[in-house]
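Retro notes (design track)

What went well: tokenization of the new backbones is finally stable.
What didn't: we kept losing track of which sequence belonged to which structure.
Fix going forward: every design gets posted as structure first, then sequence, in one message. First example under the new rule, 174 residues:
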């Protein structure tokens, strides 16, 4: 007789793809990477930036509460009116008229420092403005750039970082 063929043993079926083991790397990436990015930003990058820029943030100041120092948190404003300068590159045919209001911390001390250094501050502000060309003044964001330059310049004249804000109240090119 003919030999009977024995059925061959079926190969084991491959394990079903999926399951928790296959999804584990994706789950870890979705959960851990944002947490790691948050931690690095909050505890490493931001403190290093604050340190390099000289920004000191107290726990109370972070929540908008007033410090217990008293007079240091009082804001005062001083207006520098009618800063008139020739625009660079126009052959003295065009000029810029501007006024700014400077806001700083320290209350009356700030006002006194601004008054005592008024000639130096005006000279610095006018030198900053007269370096601008007509093209510079027409660029988007020109006022923000000027604002930043003036804040840094005034803080340089005063010798500290007491200027917090600067508002350009008049800005006209003729």
């Amino acid at each position: 007789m003919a030999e009977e063929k024995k059925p061959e043993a079926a190969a084991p079926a491959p394990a079903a793809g999926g399951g928790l083991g296959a999804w584990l790397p994706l789950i870890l990436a979705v959960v851990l990477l944002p947490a790691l990015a948050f931690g690095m930003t909050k505890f490493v990058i931001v403190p290093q930036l604050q340190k390099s820029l000289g920004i000191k943030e107290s726990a109370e100041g972070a929540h908008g509460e007033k410090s217990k120092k008293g007079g240091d948190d009082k804001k005062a404003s001083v207006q520098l009116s009618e800063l008139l300068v020739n625009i660079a590159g126009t052959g003295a045919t065009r000029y810029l008229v501007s006024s700014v209001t400077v806001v700083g911390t320290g209350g009356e001390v700030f006002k006194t420092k601004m008054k005592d250094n008024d000639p130096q501050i005006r000279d610095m502000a006018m030198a900053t403005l007269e370096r601008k060309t007509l093209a510079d003044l027409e660029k988007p964001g020109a006022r923000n750039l000027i604002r930043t330059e003036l804040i840094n310049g005034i803080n340089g004249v005063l010798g500290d970082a007491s200027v917090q804000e600067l508002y350009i109240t008049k800005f006209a090119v003729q």
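Added context from the reviewer: Helices lie at 19-53, 108-116, 118-130, 134-138, 142-158.
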